[in-house]
Amino acid sequence: MGFDFEFDLLRELTETSGVPGYEDRVRDVVKRELAERTDEVRTDAMGNVVGTVHGAADPDYEVAVAAHMDEIGFMVKHVTDGGFLKLDALGGWDARVLRAQRVRVHAEDGDLAGVIGSVPPHTLTEEERERDDSVDGVVVDLGMGSEDVEAAVSVGDLVTMEQSTVELGDCVTGKALDDRVCLFAMLEAAARVEEPDVTVRFCATVQEEVGLRGATALGVDVDPDLAVALDVTVASDVPGVDEDKQVTELGEGAAIKLKDSSVITTPKVHRRLRAVAEEEGIDHQLEVLPSGGTDTAGFQNTNGAKPVGAISVPTRYLHTVTETANGDDIAATVDLLTAFLGSETGEHDYSL
């Protein structure tokens, strides 16, 4: 099919591991890319990465753009006598999707392939069939004897899902599009924005999936005059879901966030995002997300009241290994962010 963006980089970002607090591998990719696209790059004690493009006209006015690096995953909490791994969740999993999935265990001496066990339905009782799935009930099978497992794996080792990222019709599907597709959009915008009037700080944050922790800390250090966060949002535009619960629709463009459960975006900011999209002919839709938080909230009041906005990539099947986003929506997100940053002069009044 082909897309109007660098699919290979998106695939690398999504397939690279990085759970909350241990974003090392994906952070290396982000640092490499930001070094090529910004004037300077730095990290902080939590592992957030900031690439700065200095403003040509008003360098003292700062806009922060944020997208989080971490993906939901697990930490090994116990190794059973039989050599199976019990897990503690890092982020919000829907345990129904975990049965019989392949995983990768990141042990000290290297990665190990594993599968999440699933009991054949032939042997289940009626009570077992009706029992709700939970992460606490998940076990990972490494296909090794118990002594070998105990020698190779320790409590505290990390576990991520094993999945490739592929084209699916007009879409991209794989693991960790939340939020690597937005990291990708941010990096693409960083490459396209040339000599902005204001200073732009492109922020790749950590630990969003466990409470917006990286962005909250970064909001103190960066202290922007304006912040725009990027994240995926719900697109439940599939059979069986009422239209008012679908939130967004694939193929209808970038989503401009009005609210989620963590933030109400600044009206003047989301109105200007809409105005830029209309002026540039960029497909867009409005997002009202009933539950779920984003890094937007991490910047809104951490270092005093700040104007904030957010752009979202509509995504089906969130927090699974088959997260799916439309290629045109991804391109529209890049276009809108680039146009918005290019039009920011530091003179827009976002006060209420």
TrEMBL record:
UniProt binding sites for Zn(2+) 1: 68, 178, 231
Active site: 208 (proton acceptor)
Entry-linked Pfam families: Peptidase_M42 (PF05343)
Ranges annotated as spanning the membrane: none
Alphabetic keyword roster: Aminopeptidase, Hydrolase, Metal-binding, Protease
Keyword Metal-binding: yes
InterPro entries: Peptidase_M42, Peptidase_M42_aminopept, Peptidase_M42_dom2
Ligand binding (Zn(2+) 2): 178, 209, 319
One example of a Gene Ontology biological process annotation: proteolysis
GO molecular function: aminopeptidase activity; metal ion binding
Cofactor note: Binds 2 divalent metal cations per subunit.
Cofactor: a divalent metal cation
Family affiliation: Belongs to the peptidase M42 family.
Protein name listed in UniProt: M20/M25/M40 family metallo-hydrolase
Source organism per UniProt: Halorarum salinum
